[in-house]
C-alpha cells in the first residue's frame, strides 16, 4: 500500500505546486499567502508518504484530498484534478491493501512449505 499511496502523494506534490503558480495570477490573493498554503500542502503530501502505514495516515491523506478539491474555489481546475487525485487515492488505498494481503498470504505459504520441507 505504501508504494501506491506514496506515488499518488508525490504526483499531488507537483499538482499543488503548479496550482500555486496558477493561483499567483489571481489579483485577490497575495503571493505570500499562496505559497504559504501551497507549501504547507506540498510538505504534507511528502510527509504523508512516510506516514501512510501509520495510524491516521490514510485519514490525513483523505483530508488532503478534500483540501485539494476545495482549492477549486481559487483555481477552478482543481475541482477536476482534486477529484481525479481523490479517485487515485481511493484506488491506491484499496488495491494497496489487497496487494499487502496477497503478499502476506504468499509469505505464510512459503514459510509453511519451507517448515514442512525442513521436517521431512
Characterise the protein shown here:
This protein is mostly helical and 120 residues long. Helix 1 runs antiparallel to helix 4. The longest helix has 43 residues. It is elongated and about 75 Å long. The chain starts with a helix and ends with a helix. The model has no long low-confidence stretch (mean pLDDT 92).
Rounded to the nearest angstrom, the distance between the terminal CA atoms is 36 Å
How many beta-strand runs? 0
String of helices and strands: HHHH
Q: Which term fits the overall shape?
A: elongated
Considering DSSP H and I runs of 4 or more, what fraction of the residues is helical?
over 70%
Report on the biggest sheet.
none
Chain-averaged pLDDT: 92
Q: Determine the number of helices (DSSP H or I, runs of at least 4 residues).
A: 4
- Supply the helix-strand structural class: mainly alpha
* Oligomeric organization of the protein chains: single chain
Radius of gyration: 19 Å
Task: Report strand %.
Answer: under 5%
Q: Extract low-pLDDT stretches.
A: none
Properties at a glance:
120 residues, mainly alpha, 4 helices, 83% helix, elongated
What is this structure, in a nutshell?
With 120 residues, the protein is mainly α. The chain contains four helices and no strands. Helix 1 packs antiparallel against helix 2 and helix 1 runs antiparallel to helix 4.
Spell out the blueprint of helices and strands.
Elements lengths: L1 H22 L7 H21 L5 H14 L6 H43 L1
Helix pairs in contact: 1-2, 1-4, 2-3, 3-4
